[in-house]
């Protein structure tokens, strides 16, 4: 999906919500555990109930790998279901991969070609040749970790190299790489005040913003400092939506939670 | 496996060789492709032929994920075979994972508990809380990316923060984390000259050194600057061993290649 198509979908749905499909068997309604594929059953219900209010889904791959082969099967079924039923929705494999070039190429093929995700999250520590293989796919994106939402972001990401924070250097340097227009960046909502500086370096690139909700980031701050003229934001919420209820109507309640966020986003978009 | 047990195995076998099981279906002997599980058949043959000359195996997870469910099955079979047949050998899941704390915890459980690897490689970009969950397992290790063997290492890792290169800061800061004695570090053989400085910060921690062979690093340089009093080195070779031949006696030739490296290592150990 191109940036333009993504923006068009956002404006049509009045939402830039991404729903994180971080499915933990210990947190889903227990009655689902007797189903043949509890993870897929949960995802299908969540997707059917929330798709009107969001423009993207983001399974975090850790939660699928934790279930071994069953987890991979559920991941495949989930992305296939999404492509079949809601082909207009953007998909993110939250995998945070990155390796030497020939190995990154394997990961890129797995997530962007074989599984058919629109994008994959990538760690920048190993530099240019570890990221560029993810940028070789037309109308697909690599979403580079820049400033993450966790406490550990202050260990290295905000440390200064020649007066410039590492995360800014990652953004600036990565913009010189081949196919840099296919880059998006992870910027945690818990650090919304940093967005003004970030927008000076990348006024238009999409930012994937986790940390709204459970981790304490505020949507209005993210929008105030992060919205670009093409919207340029995907705001992720996982636990606050998908685990809003453990009852049999969990999907309905997840839908209602997603709708609340969608309405707040519609308000923000009105001010564009 | 504890550091001490690993050192004892090294001294007994006179080898600190790690064989990288980076199995690419396009590179293995074509006659294996007709077998039920070509990846496992290849690994089994390589392991049986090389186990006398090495102390560790390191499957790079990208190569398994690239084959989806079949890849995961082959990975499980490989690690189970290793545990059953050669329980004294150290195992490394080369996964280069790292995420926010509760998600890193899932990855740690997957590789260190469920699959039962002795260690997993971890990316440091997201800081302390992304790494510590990998350090909660007794007699297991997290192997932190510090200075990698690829060209992209110069993009960020060697950049200076307050006069100190990022990779050194990663090593130094990570040594203050909980259970830091369970940390090993990835240091590329292509940058052996950096080892003197690294040994000043961590005189005893094990270093996993890739890049000997195909990537051009030299074993004698790695030993000259990297050997500690407890050996403290695992030197990895992948393609130069496992793809040394495409003929039906590929495993035998891989064994011979491993033995050549083992003999060089025995020489180096004699000088300890």
UniProtKB/TrEMBL annotation, chains A, B:
Entry-linked InterPro entries: Aldolase_TIM, OMPdecase_type-2, OMPdeCOase_dom, RibuloseP-bd_barrel
EC class: lyase
A biological-process GO annotation: 'de novo' UMP biosynthetic process
Organism in which the protein naturally occurs: Salegentibacter flavus
Name the record gives this protein: Orotidine-5'-phosphate decarboxylase
Catalyzed chemical reaction(s): orotidine 5'-phosphate + H(+) = UMP + CO2
Molecular function terms from GO: orotidine-5'-phosphate decarboxylase activity
Domain of life: Bacteria
Keyword annotations of the record: Decarboxylase, Lyase, Pyrimidine biosynthesis
Annotated metabolic or biological route of this protein: Pyrimidine metabolism; UMP biosynthesis via de novo pathway; UMP from orotate: step 2/2
């Amino acid at each position: 999906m191109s940036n333009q198509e993504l923006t068009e979908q956002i404006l049509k749905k009045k939402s830039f919500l991404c729903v994180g499909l971080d499915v933990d068997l210990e947190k889903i309604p227990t009655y689902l555990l007797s189903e043949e594929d509890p993870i897929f059953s949960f995802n299908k219900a969540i997707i059917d109930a929330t798709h009107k209010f969001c423009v993207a889904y983001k399974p975090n791959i850790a939660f699928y790998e934790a279930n071994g082969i069953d987890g991979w099967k559920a991941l495949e079924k989930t992305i296939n279901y999404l492509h079949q039923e809601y082909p207009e929705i953007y998909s993110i494999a939250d995998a945070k991969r990155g390796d030497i070039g020939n190995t990154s190429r394997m990961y890129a093929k797995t997530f962007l070609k074989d599984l058919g995700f629109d994008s994959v999250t990538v760690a920048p520590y190993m530099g240019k040749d570890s990221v560029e293989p993810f940028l070789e796919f037309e109308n697909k994106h690599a979403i580079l970790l820049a400033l993450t939402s966790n406490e550990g972001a202050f260990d290295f990401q905000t440390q200064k190299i020649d007066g410039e924070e590492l995360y800014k250097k990652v953004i600036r340097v990565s913009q010189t790489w081949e196919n840099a227009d296919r880059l998006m960046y992870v910027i945690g909502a818990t650090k919304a005040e940093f967005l003004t500086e970030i927008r000076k370096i990348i006024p238009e690139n999409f930012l994937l913003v986790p940390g709204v909700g459970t981790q304490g980031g505020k949507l209005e701050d993210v929008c105030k400092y992060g919205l670009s003229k093409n919207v340029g934001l995907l705001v992720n919420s996982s636990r606050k939506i998908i685990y809003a209820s453990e009852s049999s109507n969990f999907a309905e309640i997840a839908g209602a939670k997603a709708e609340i966020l969608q309405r707040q986003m519609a308000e923000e978009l009105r001010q564009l």
